[in-house]
Recover the amino acids of this structure.
């Protein structure tokens, strides 16, 4: 994350409980250097918390594994993402065929 996405990543992590926030408190939609940066101490604290052996960190890692399996299933043949992109390709082919047929 560079600047604009840190705040939203933090909120997503919070809602899904798939990580540890680092304290990005302000949304920065542009490269505005007046917005407070996330300091290395906050990052170090978050990493220590996540990589430790606490029950919370174990739950987070388990949830991430579950979500990774779901994402992998979605892109495999028969998965929702696979099916959706296949349908999009077929629709685009049909449109191109109609356009070439009609001149």
């Amino acid at each position: 994350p560079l600047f604009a996405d840190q705040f939203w990543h933090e909120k997503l992590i919070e809602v899904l409980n798939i990580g540890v926030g680092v304290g990005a408190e302000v949304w920065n939609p542009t490269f505005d250097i007046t917005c407070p940066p996330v300091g290395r101490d906050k990052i170090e604290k978050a990493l220590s918390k996540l990589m430790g052996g606490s029950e919370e960190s174990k739950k987070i890692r388990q949830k991430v594994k579950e979500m990774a399996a779901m994402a992998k299933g979605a892109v495999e043949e028969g998965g929702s993402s696979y099916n959706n992109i296949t349908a999009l390709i077929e629709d685009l082919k049909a449109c191109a065929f109609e356009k070439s047929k009609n001149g």
